[in-house]
Amino acid sequence: MKQLVVEKNNPTPILWDTPIPNPGPGEILIKNHYSVVSSGTELAAIEVANTSVTDKLQNSSNIEKGLDLLKKEGFRAVWNAVFPKNLLPLQLGYSSAGEVVKVGQGVSAYHVGDKVVSNGGHAEYVVVSENLCRRIDENTDIKEAAFTVLGSIALHGLRLSETTLGSKVVVIGLGVIGQLVCRLAVAQGSEVTGIDPDPERSKYGDNFFNSADDIQLKDVDTVIITAATSSNEPIELATKIARNKAKIVVVGDIPLNISRNDFYYKELELVVSKSYGPGRYDKQYEALGNDYPIEYVRWTENRNFEAFTKLLSQKQIHLLDLVSEEIAFEDAPRVYEKFTEEIKPLSVVLRYNIDPEPKIELENNLQPEPKTSKVNVGILGAGNFAASTILPVLKELKKECKVLGIASSKGLSAESLAKSFKLNNKYSTEEDILNAEEIDAVLILTPHYNHSELVIKALNKGKAVYVEKPLALDIQSITDIEESIYRSQNPKLFIGFNRRFSKSTQFIKQKLINSPANSINLRFSVPPLDRDHWTNIKEIGGGRIVGEAVHGIDLACYLFDSLPQSISASAPVDKTNNMARDNQVFLNINFTNGSHASLQYFSEANQILSKERLEVHGEGNSYILEDFKMLRFLEGSQDRSKTFSSGKGHKESLSIFFDYVRDKLQNPFTWEEIKAVSKAAIIAQDHINSGQQHNV
Asked: pLDDT (tens digit, 9 = 90+) per residue, 629-641?
């Protein structure tokens, strides 16, 4: 399919050929019929995309972070932190309408064939979650319906103004959002005046003017600013024309250099509107589909979609006259030049080819890869970890493996990485990779929630599997994987617990052969994440114990040569909301051989600390390792040190995996180890602050 994007450091949007995305749980695949170009937002996004890496690095806060990372992990870590994030092109657009062609697991409210609006971008096919789309009535013009998301931005701003029948409303800025605010305000019975310096914009209404000097404004109840400008004039004008105790609502992108005296003497109220309404940017709402109770949050973004489409179906507002031009999607890249011309279009609608695709089974002309001593690899998942860590390592291991393809559920990221790493990508979807006979092994680098599902699919297809931690997010999924292993003829399962393979860990392991350890203390000091970061959302990332701290449980298991027997977890409690801070967690783990490990996982510690500090003690010997690079080892009366430069074992881990696939080595993991470590992390996550040890 084709998708409109802007590449980093290239100001001209282009059409990319990318695989058709696949809907995940709670998601819907839509074939677009129309989408609306939002010139202000999209041109601003293009400008941000073309901010050079040099300019970003000159930001003082970024310089400080970069120097800290350079000191801790070296130049390569700084490079990987900066550049992979600049590889992925920016997707343009967020207001479209089309037809449902596929629904994901758990979706029951939508069916194939439904006509819907969504916040999907400019692409032939888009995937959105249930709360980011809405079905439209049969009598609704689908071209008008494509304005729904833009209309919901306008509607949310109008709701915040608390205007009603007879209210006097002034709208400053008559771009497409401003025009929509005006029409919605008129529809509710308000007295509306519009102001915009562009004479072309003022032609769309009888009560629209180019300057406040052209009219007498009196007793203005609300001023809604929809302009996008670096000038402070809109907010200055709003405070001037608003009556005492009036409200000013800012929808557009403007500076807010306000005069305290102006607000003080009039007792004005200022509100900044956030996009389409409550639920926006809330992952619990948008990604997981958890709705807000209607009795407490009447107008969520999805209910705003519903209200706007209902106005369209009832013909209470009309929008087609706002369309300056309708352009075939194939010609979309040239649209943005029009917004730099002297006479700018108000809005442009992109029209997609909706002719039914011929249902002809085409012969697959792909030639299978010849078998060599290399392992033919397919990658599932194309996120930042794949870009910054795994693909650079695979490039170093090119004598051992050949990457035949990479796929992701959304398509664009896979295509971007394939281009960046010069991969001849043969596969459009994850299913294509799993079904390809020439692929020997798959690397599963997707978000955590679907690891277990993909592991089972890959094992069932006879593929060797390298899965990044975690293996699964719940105990039942581990049981399902175990059943799949027993059903497979020659199952090969390897998990990305790379730290046990680092050269520094191997050095300590050799020391422990004759003098086993019985006590381990491991401290993680990691960057803080927002509360709604996907890692923290249990249904998506599993939480930070399952998603990250599990590395420490495996490392202790390896160094003790013993399985975890019981585990407890405790964390500080935020007494203001009675929530455990699982980003500040203490784990105590007892092992079957009587050894004990204490693990502290901190994201609120001083970031000058080493990211990981390991202490191993036993039989009078102690080994203290900082970031898998600096080792101090005390044996008897000797106090020595050693440095390592090879990192945390990603390269060694993958190299061993490839030898395992080629039957040169046995699997360094037993299933009992993988299962016990994975279960221990899940149990700890589920029983934080229970006050007791839980059997693994």
From this structure: 999 999 989 999 9
**Side-chain half-sphere exposure of 536, counting CA atoms within 13 A:** 16
At residue 73 the predicted structure's pLDDT band, cuts being 50, 70 and 90, is low
605: tokens are 């510690």
Tokens of 233: 């004039």
Q: What is the greatest pairwise CA distance in the chain?
A: 92
Delineate the domains of the chain, giving CATH numbers in brackets: 2-147+319-351 (3.90.180.10), 150-272 (3.40.50.720), 375-497 (3.40.50.720), 499-695 (3.30.360.10)
Tokens, residue 434: 């799993």
In the predicted structure, residue 360 carries a pLDDT above the cut 50: no
Alpha carbon distance 303, 305 (integer Å): 5
> How far is the C-alpha of 614 from the C-alpha of 677, rounded, in Å?
18
In this prediction, residue 264 carries a pLDDT of 95
The C-alpha atoms of residue 576 and residue 593 are separated, in whole angstroms, by: 41
Instruction: Measure CA of the first residue to CA of the last residue in the chain; give whole Å.
Output: 47
What residues does 209 pair with on adjacent strands? 195
pTM of the model: 0.82
Contacts of 459 (CB under 8 A, 6+ apart): 465, 481, 484, 485, 488, 491, 493
Q: Indicate the residue type of 90.
A: L
Instruction: Please name every residue paired with 617 in a beta bridge, in sequence order, or none if there are none.
Output: 519, 622
pLDDT tens digits, one per residue of 487-510: 998 999 999 999 999 999 999 999
Could you give the CA distance from residue 617 to residue 633 in angstroms, rounded to a whole number? 10
| Structural contact between residues 601 and 548, judged by C-beta atoms closer than 8 angstroms | yes
Structure tokens at 259: 């005069």
Task: Please name the residue that has the structure tokens 């102001």.
Answer: 195
